[in-house]
Design goal:
CATH architecture of chain B: Up-down Bundle
CATH superfamily of chain B: Phosphate transport system protein phou homolog 2, domain 2
Helix content of chain B: over 70%
CATH class of chain B: Mainly Alpha
Largest sheet of chain B: none
Shape of chain A: flat
CATH superfamily of the largest domain in chain A: MetI-like
Largest sheet of chain A: 3 strands, antiparallel
Structural class of chain B: mainly alpha
Number of domains of chain A: 2
Radius of gyration of chain B: 19 Å
Distance between the termini of chain B: 25 Å
Number of domains of chain B: 1
Order of helices and strands of chain B: HHHHHHH
Strand order of the largest sheet of chain A: 2-1-3
Number of strands of chain B: 0
Chains: A mainly alpha (about 400), B mainly alpha (about 210), C alpha/beta (about 270)
Radius of gyration of chain A: 30 Å
Number of strands of chain A: 3
CATH architecture of the largest domain in chain A: Orthogonal Bundle
Number of helices of chain A: 15
CATH topology of chain B: Methane Monooxygenase Hydroxylase, Chain G, domain 1
Oligomer: heterotrimer
Strand content of chain A: 5-15%
CATH topology of the largest domain in chain A: MetI-like fold
CATH class of the largest domain in chain A: Mainly Alpha
Chain lengths: ~400, ~210, ~270
């Protein structure tokens, strides 16, 4: 084979290049894996959650699910399909145990059993479809409002805790918690960050403060929960309340906010500060007019992201703010306005926790779990998106 | 873009023109003093020469200052160089005028008025015109005029040669003393030198404008 | 004999007291343990351009920033001895309000630093922080300053546009205009042209030359030609010491100190 003469810049294969290609593709593969995992997570939650949140009929959104409080679900299953299914399930179990008992030589017998099991399964599915079509589901309120209960000779009555109704109070509670803790954490964090980045003198003390703030973000959330419980709930005597939840969440988000705010402020060119100081501005004036406005987009984005993350935590609010079930919405039944702050609320993450681990699982809790997770994901996404939009808006106003 | 320090170049040009005019005046007056027999005029020429020397020094300093502080290049740099050389030429013209005036005084004291056959008047007119043209071509940046000046210088050379012949002729020996004839030759030579300086100046103007 | 070709030659010693607006006496300054300035005494004269030159790290910028106490912003700086008087007042006395001082002594920085606001707001900034809000007054000052900085004709139709859309040279001139708005007497310039191309530099130089009829200007520059072109007096700094200070002509044409000679003729180091 005649080898064409290679010129000076011709491509030649070498080990280095092979490694190069392998490494690049390895990175690519790993990235795809991560993306795949994330996509699966979102897809799973969306697919299953939308069953609870959306519906085929007119408004397409399950208003009940989004507004009602969680209730016990009353299910009336038609007796006939129910019994048929139970019967076949028993048969399948029997066949399966028989098949297990067979020796390894009885292949014919084995295939026969398997076929029978398959047939039974198919029949179960048929009955199941009928059962689903004929069964009646009532949430607790609806059940109580019924004029006459279905005929118990034709239906089997079963109840499932937490599986009916909706998650309205939890959505409201979570929004309240997030908004309140954003306000507290932002104001506290911003003041702190301004002091640290603009006023404090660099030195060992400042290093120590920074380090301890950084360490704070590594503290497990349950510790914050216990701290909030000890500090706000007991020591301050606020009880399990929104305000205790606010402060607990805010303190948990503080390290992130302080670090992010400091970072944003440090990214503002020195020239802006010097420029305004040289024009006779006081330090605070120069910070107010020439540092904060330009740092704000960064501060807001990272802070809201930080809060949104923290808002997803169950542990900090478990002891401080969250009720597993509360009949009233936060603004109902207040004796005086301040009571608003001193009441517990339901919250989505805690609700997910309760529905997933504190009650017996069945086919009806599944919808509730996924639905809650989906809504929660949506709310967090909404906050993140609004923070990004806010940043874009502020950025376009103050650009450098 | 016109920079604020470019005014200084204009001032340098003005100063150079002034120097040229002064030296031209001196040259003209020196010959006139001889022809008119005016001893006072001789003193005026001598005083003028001092002023010319002073002005030349000034221009030298201005050039030096401009080079040090303004880092000129190209035309500006050539202008500085030309200013230095031209001011030197003018100063030499002043010196020649000085010489002429001194010789004129000697002749006047020795002989009284000078007799006709010598063409100092014409020669002086020529050299003065030449010098004037040289200054004008510098001011007006006129290459053609500068080239004309170079050619015209030959006429003065011819007159100078003519003077040599007259002054060394036998007839002249009777009319003038040896010293006076010798002085007259030197005067003629000085006027011719003034013409040469005018020619140099024209060459410098050409260099300034053409750059080579 | 007064020569028309030489712009008024500053006379170093005659009537120096009357003309001095900044008087520095035996001023020594340190960043933490390292001393940056050693016993500097020099007078800066009213309505002149004074250039501070010297190799990097010679302390000229530090010295400049002492005049409006910009060094206060840096930690661990201290004055070891001496004093700086501006308009007869020791600016490092305890009863001096830095804000008032900085209104009196404006500053233009090496990197042009217009605020990311409109051109108008940039100029108006200095007044707004003083609490002046009246539109008519602001309008007038903005126009005066932009005209003063020879920028008015270039930007009068787009005062509302962002200052960051201007060219580098325009930005630097905007910064000068901004400094003019608070009516300073002295303007400090820390290498104002180091990031500009020759044309922009020339424009800024023209501006500075024009400003000296009304303002006292102190300029730090690495560009010796610039110092030579622009200044009436030049001070040469080396290793934190003032080596030679005098009329620019003297420094560039016939310096007394061999170090100055070596530096200005490029034979340094």
């Amino acid at each position: 084979m005649a080898k064409p003469k290679l010129h000076r810049f011709a491509i030649r294969s070498s080990r280095k290049k092979t490694i190069e290609v392998i490494v690049a593709n390895l990175f690519r593969l790993m990235t795809y894996c991560v993306i795949l995992a994330a996509a699966y997570l979102f897809f799973d939650i969306t697919a299953n959650g939308s069953k609870a949140v959306f519906q085929g009929k007119a408004p397409f959104i399950n208003i009940q699910f989004l507004t009602e409080k969680p209730q016990t679900l009353h299910v009336f299953e038609p007796l006939e399909p129910y019994n048929e299914i139970q019967k076949r399930r028993t048969q399948i179990l029997q066949l399966q145990s028989k098949r297990k008992a067979l020796g390894s030589n009885d292949t014919e017998q084995r295939t026969e059993y398997s076929e029978q099991i398959d047939n039974l399964q198919a029949e179960i599915e048929r009955w199941d479809a009928q059962r689903k079509a004929e069964r009646l589901k009532y949430s607790d309120d609806a059940y109580r409002a019924l004029d006459h209960t279905p005929d118990l000779s034709m239906f089997k009555h079963q109840t499932y805790a937490y599986s009916g109704g909706g998650i309205g109070p939890a959505i409201i509670g979570t929004c309240l918690l997030v908004l309140g803790s954003i306000a507290i954490a932002l104001s506290l964090g911003l003041l702190c960050a301004i002091y640290l980045s603009e006023y404090s003198r660099p030195g060992k003390t400042l290093q120590a403060i920074r380090l301890s703030i950084l360490n704070l973000s590594g503290v497990p959330s349950i510790v914050f929960g216990l701290f909030g419980f000890g500090m706000f709930v007991h020591f301050f005597g606020w009880g399990v309340s929104i305000i205790a939840g606010w402060f607990t969440l805010a303190i948990m988000a503080l390290p992130v906010i302080i670090a992010a705010s400091e970072e944003s402020m440090r990214a503002i060119p020195r020239g802006f500060r010097e420029g305004s100081l040289a024009l006779g501005a006081s330090k605070w004036t120069s910070i107010r007019t020439n540092v904060l406005p330009y740092a704000l987009p960064g501060i807001l984005t990272s802070s809201i992201m930080g809060i949104a993350r923290v808002a997803g935590e169950t542990a900090p609010i478990m002891f401080t703010a969250a009720y597993a079930l509360r009949d009233q919405l936060p603004w109902e039944g207040l004796e005086q306005p301040t009571d608003f702050f001193f009441q517990g609320v339901m919250a989505l993450p805690y609700h997910i926790y309760v529905v997933s681990s504190k009650i017996p699982q069945n086919e009806y809790t599944r919808d509730m779990q996924y639905g809650t997770a989906f809504v929660f994901l949506f709310i967090v996404g909404f906050f993140a998106l609004s923070s990004i939009l806010l940043r874009i808006h502020v950025r376009s106003k103050y650009k450098w | 873009m016109q920079r604020y320090f470019h005014d200084e170049l204009q001032e340098l040009r003005n100063k150079l023109t002034l120097l040229g005019e002064k030296s031209n005046d001196a040259a003209r007056l020196s010959v006139e003093s001889l022809l008119e027999g005016d001893l006072e005029m001789v003193d005026r020429v001598l005083a003028l020469d001092d002023a010319i020397d002073e002005l030349e020094k000034e221009i030298g300093h201005a050039c030096m200052r401009y080079i040090s502080l303004r880092s000129p290049v190209s035309t500006d740099a050539r202008l500085i160089l030309v200013a230095l050389k031209a001011s030197h030429d003018f100063e030499r013209v002043g010196d020649e005028a000085h010489t002429i005036a001194r010789k004129a005084r000697d002749i006047l004291i020795r002989e009284g008025r000078l007799s006709e056959p010598l063409k100092f008047k014409e020669m002086s007119r020529l050299s003065s015109n030449l010098l004037n043209d040289a200054i004008t071509c510098f001011v007006e940046e006129d290459i053609e005029k500068a080239e004309a000046v170079i050619k015209m210088d030959q006429e003065i050379d011819a007159l100078n040669k003519h003077h040599y012949e007259i002054l060394t002729a036998e007839t002249m020996q009777k009319q003038l003393s040896d010293a006076s004839r010798f002085d007259a030759v030197l005067i003629s030579k000085s006027i011719e030198r003034i013409g040469d300086h005018a020619k140099n100046l024209a060459k410098e103007v050409i260099y300034l404008l053409k750059g080579n | 004999m007064n020569l028309a070709i030489q712009p008024e030659r500053p006379k170093p010693n005659s009537a120096s007291k009357a003309k001095a607006i900044i008087e520095t006496r035996d001023f020594s300054f340190a960043y933490g343990p390292t001393q940056a300035l050693f016993d500097i005494s020099m007078d800066i004269h009213k309505k002149e351009v004074t250039a501070l030159i010297g190799p990097s790290g010679c302390g000229k910028s530090t010295f400049l920033r002492c005049f409006n106490r910009m060094n206060d912003l840096i930690d661990n700086t201290r004055i070891l001895s001496g004093q700086i008087k501006i308009s007869g007042i020791d600016i490092y006395k305890r009863d001096v309000d830095v804000i008032e001082l900085r209104k009196h002594v404006g500053m233009v920085f090496q990197k042009s630093n217009p605020f990311p606001k409109s051109i108008y707001d940039n100029i108006a900034y200095g007044l707004r922080i003083q609490g002046i809000k009246r539109k008519s007054e602001l309008d007038e000052v903005v126009e005066r300053c932009l005209r003063g900085a020879a920028l008015w004709d270039e930007v009068k139709d787009r005062l509302g546009d962002s200052a960051l859309g201007m060219s580098g040279g325009q930005q630097q001139r905007l910064c000068i205009a901004r400094a003019l708005a608070v009516k300073p007497k002295i303007i400090l310039m820390d290498e104002p042209c180091s990031a500009l191309d020759p044309v922009a530099t020339a424009k800024v130089e023209e501006l500075i030359h024009g400003l000296k009829t009304d303002y006292t200007i102190v300029i730090v520059t690495h560009n010796m030609q610039q110092a030579a072109r622009l200044s009436d007096r030049t001070a040469f700094f080396y290793l934190g010491k003032l080596i030679e200070y005098g009329p620019t002509e003297q420094i560039f044409m016939n310096p007394e100190n061999p170090k100055t000679e070596a530096y200005v003729s490029g034979r340094f180091g």
